[in-house]
Amino acid sequence: MTTTPSDPPPGAPADAPPIAPAQASAALGAGRERRLHPLSWLFVLLAQLRSFALPLIALLVFGRGGDSWEFLGMFAAGALTLVAVIQYYTYRFRIDASELVIRSGLVSRNVRHLPLARIQNVALRRNLLHRAFGVAEVKLESAVGGVSAEAQMRVLSMADAAALETLVRASRDDAPADADIEAEAAPQGETLLELPLIELIKLGLTSNRGLVLGAAGFGVFSQMDSSGFGNLVGDTARGLFGYAAGLHLGLLQWLVVVPLLALALVAALRLVSVALTVLQFHGFRLGELDSRLSVEAGLLTRIRSNAALRKIQHWTLRESWLLRLFARRSLKVETAAMQAMNETQGLSDLAPIAPPAVIDALLARWLPWLRLDALQWQPLHPGAWRRIAFWPVLVSIALCVPLCWRIGAWGLLPLLTVPWWLYRAHRIARASGWAVTDRVLAWRSGWLDRRVSFAEIAKLQGLQLTQSPFDRRRGMASLSADTAGASPFGHRLDLHYLPESDARALYAQLAPQIARSALRW
């Protein structure tokens, strides 16, 4: 981890030197339409083939031989190649005075006008093949996305990608004048955070990527051939149980072997998590140039994204119990850019793992007016623990009914988890809380996995007060605050189980402020 100046700046590709906006506009052929890189059709074809990779693998593994399958495969490959070539010849882009104009389509023709100042993020993606040909896939994200990125250019040369990034950076509201940028032909960026291999290993050990990958793989293979997969699992299980029965182990030996096998499985999953983490975050670099942040990472596929600091809408600090074992935290953000469905925002993990002092220093640099340790945290409703424990306890009790019917009194074993659920609910309720100042709204939750999220009140987009019948009976209410580009899977500003009086007072305080505030994207 370092905070020393670096060259080239975080906003420029490693193998393309920074240029001035006038030069960038000339390099992109300002005022005239251009095609993408001549090899664009190849990368479009490869992207389409990735979509069909899983069915093709299933066909090869479970399909039966025959010339008809080979003919269909050749026909599909030819059709995809033709589509890729047509996309290349029908895709045009043009740089006008202050906007990017994109024309695409053969039968259904589309023309998109993208003001450069409205572009929130420029994301570059480069895998090994991209690097071999000196090109990059460019995605332009804005605050009015949808199921796809605002614009996706597959692919541009590195020189064109650098020129486009320069134009976007120069067009933002707080950019210096062109003359100033012209005078600074090679601006210096500052590296704020780098992650060595040992930090990536710690990050992998604290993540569940291996478990998620294993569960996803199990689900995929189970859908390929349900009967064949079921037979495979059944035969494997019977073989293992038969082998175990042949060992003639006693109870004490089983008490030793089973935990060891469980530990071996956990260790294997953690090793997979470490490998996936290294692939994703190798060479991680967080940089800043002219109040614009840039994140670059990746071993095989290198991805770089950048966005203006002022466009960050939502901040989240996380401390899981594993991160606390290594004395580490993580920092994630959300910008106003809307990314494609099933994809994460490019500029998300500002600090995947770092010591608390480093993250505190970064926050002090970017938000000098904010002091999280000085916030006056307010507790939840005294009965919040009952609401937290309600569903887990109900499920434990409900499980006893079918189990008792099947195995008798042993079916009451799930009741042993009830004290744990009650204890857990007390700890979560005690650890959760909310805080508000004249500039920021903050929410913390979690006991083993602690998270603190906050957002500037001026950047809140919506406010919702909700009460369920259980809440009304207990005198509780929940308040949810929304920001632009919010992910439904992140740690939201959902203030649950507040005293009703506090929730209504907070709503009355924030609603007029949000109504008066101009949208800050």
TrEMBL record:
UniProt cross-references to InterPro entries, sorted A to Z: UCP026631, YdbS-like_PH
Membrane-spanning residues: 41-63, 69-89, 254-279, 389-422
Residues of the YdbS-like PH domain: 88-166, 290-337, 430-510
Superkingdom field: Bacteria
Keyword Chaperone assigned: no
Keywords, alphabetical: Membrane, Transmembrane, Transmembrane helix
Keyword flag Transmembrane helix: yes
Name the UniProt record assigns to this protein: Putative membrane protein
Natural source organism: Chiayiivirga flava
